[in-house]
Here is the input.
Amino acid sequence: MRQPTPAHPDRPARSGSGRRLWFDLHSWLGLKLCVFMGFVCLTGTLAVFSQEIDWLLHAPMRVADGGEHAGWGPVIHAAQAAHPDWELEGISAGHTRLFAARAQMRLPDGKRRFVWINPYTAQVTGDTGWFNTQRLLRNTHRHLMLPVAWGVPLVAALSIPLLLSLLSSLYIYKKWWRGFFKRPDPSRPRRLWGDVHRLAGVWSLWFLLLIGVTGAWYLIESLGGDAPAAPTIRLAKGNDRAAAVDPAAVDAAVQTVRQHWPRLDILGAIPARDGGSILFLGEADAWLVRERANNIAVDLHTGHVIGMHDGRALGVHQRIAEMADPLHFGNFGGWPIRLLWLLAGTLLTGLCVTGVYLYGLRTVDSLRYAAKRRQT
Amino acid sequence: MSHEKLPGPWRAAWQGMGRWRWLWLALLLVWASLVPFEAMK
Here is the structure.
């Protein structure tokens, strides 16, 4: 059924006026893309707390805060001793103090599992599958489970209509800066939902811009504009697996790192496949970077530092690449920032829903008006 | 006088999406069918 174009939201605009064109663009983008956009916004919003969801679902991830950490050596030893035929690919500190440390291990059949270790007692609490809520939400939000080469550009391309929706909204909503505290008018559904849509819109403008810009970066990255990784990252790679990692050598390496780089808070470690060196990752002085931007590699046989990279030493291209994830995920300032991202993501998802509902209300109004005219 | 039954707002919006709705539904189906494969990795 072909339906009439809904009337303008506030008052009739002159035909062909700029504002009308912006409105038509906003309405068209919002309506045609709402299912896809809403789905991606919803999965991204839930992904903010995906680790906490997994924490609730999987008992091995939960530990009581035990004060002093047992150290990386004992934690690595516990994981390797519990599963001697599994290969340790990497280990990361607990997400918060109530999370177990996570060892990513590869099984002889090539599949991966997570082994969870209490970081305070260095005892294995259990293991869980590779696929979890975090993986489900991350891979859905990032590339819809499609091959990465297709899925990432497809999802990241949504940044273009997202930014166009933002831009058009500023033209449509006159004096939008006065709308932050405008109470929705409940007198008519169309007015109520229009007010709710505009209220959610003005409060999430900053987030729309941030998600749109970082999403556009992911699009550029997926099309070949990605920045090179820090040269020390390749030290974590290597040849065939030769031996398990020596926990005592890991502890000695941690001491070496503390002497060389006291400001580095180690949050993860990747042993080389041959067991001869280890790359530590973590937080230091650089602001808004991923953990991998700060890394230091230590030879486990000699105890010497074989390479390090400070996140402050990034070029412009790498800086942009490193900033995108923390800004997009909201994981740079603890749970209060992530809570803010969750709320803003909820508003964004709500904008998709209320926008579509508004279109429906306007269309029904137009149809009702047209029917009345035919009857008179 | 004929009484036309008007669609509800959700139905009107759904119809207003035109062919795009089938594209997104197809994409959702592809996604749903890929989830078990991801889970088996």
